[in-house]
Amino acid sequence: MLSKLVLILDSRKELPAKYKKLIESCSVSVLIESSLEKGLSILTEFEPDAILVSDSLNLPVPDVVKKLRMLAYPSRPCIIALSKSSEMQDKLDVLDAGADDFLSEPIESEEFKARINAHLRRHFENLANDITGLPETKSTLKVLKRILASGQKWAAMLVKINNFQAYKEIYGDLASDKMLQTYTAIMNSALDENDYIGGLSDAEFLILTNPLKAEHIASFLVYAFDAIVDKFYNEEDAKQGYIILHGDDNAGKRINLVSTSIGIISGEYQKYDSVNSAITSLIATCKLANTGTNSSYIVERAKLSAKNAIFNREYNNKILIIEPDEALNFLLKTTGEMQGYEVASVMDYDSAIHMIKTFDPALIILDAGDAETLKGLDLCCKIKKDDKTKDIKVVLSTIVHDKKMILNTGADLYLPKPYELLSIFNWIERLIKDFNN
Known about the structure:
Blueprint: E1 5-9, H1 14-24, E2 29-33, H2 36-46, E3 50-54, H3 61-71, E4 78-83, H4 88-96, E5 101-104, H5 109-127, H6 137-150, E6 155-162, H7 164-171, H8 173-189, E7 196-201, E8 204-209, H9 211-228, H10 235-240, E9 242-246, E10 252-256, E11 259-266, H11 275-289, E12 296-299, E13 318-322, H12 326-338, E14 342-346, H13 352-359, E15 363-367, H14 375-385, E16 393-398, H15 403-407, E17 413-416, H16 421-436
Parallel strand pairs: 1-2, 1-3, 3-4, 4-5, 11-12, 13-14, 13-15, 15-16, 16-17
Antiparallel strand pairs: 6-8, 6-11, 7-8, 9-10, 10-17
């Protein structure tokens, strides 16, 4: 999967072929170019991890090293000089020019392999994430770029842990680090030496594999993640199926337990000319997989692409207010409109269902009702159980200060009365962003 790539710049025939064979025996891909000009083209397109420069190019090796070091600065590959000279001054000149090593030829095969492996090992250790041990974002995108340029058959998998940041905020760094390490171990167990895995963010990973294997890997990851997810929570949170993120004025936001979503694309149905286009399609496909509380995956098919996916849907900033108190209803509606939202309001629960279906809001501010009837709780249950409305964000405002009872209806935010308008609209902004993401 071109996860490790060495470029050899050497105008000879036999020796570079020998070096290529030795390096490839260590599961490292190798490209050979006989001129510096062609080598610079490879440098730009494939961003190799190491470059071997021979003095057979008939150019001063220190000058070549300086040029490579300057042009390859963003990717910072290891640069190793190969020379027939064993003179100390020649070695010093090359090292001063920016090379990482100087190898005098002839060099014994085992020593050659050991030195190359040592440089590559240090190179990748410097680029690895401290928690997962996986390559960081920059390295991961570099490997994806190589795959797109290589013409190989490939499948890319965007693997995401949903609700990870909320989990980290509540359970802390140690628990969230343990979750990342555990899932990394699970993913590594599903891959072999021909696959690649790297990080994209705290809770997002990229897997590159063969198109025939991708769906099998995704199916295993979904099963394995759901099998262990309860172990990351205390008994009470695991039993109720959500956690509560506390906010201002004792408000509480309902957060589902973590799950994994996996989007899979390949070069079979669409040609990707750039890393950006591939990542955009991966994000769109992964979002389609994240449609419920359980883990799931989606495989890109012929008619599924970023152009038609929800990634580009119109932003919904509609708010529906269901509040029997006329003065508060008017105040919420007026404030919402001043904040730039499209707002509709009703004062009774009976007409609310029709308004929800015709207005199609992103968020509902719903009064729970009086302490005896609590009609708003029943309405919230209906909204969250209906497949057509379950994704709408619901803020339940109430005089009943029972946080768990309110959130058990499926409400996204518990907001006890009385509350400040600034507080509720801070929450609204976050929830509407969540809805549109």
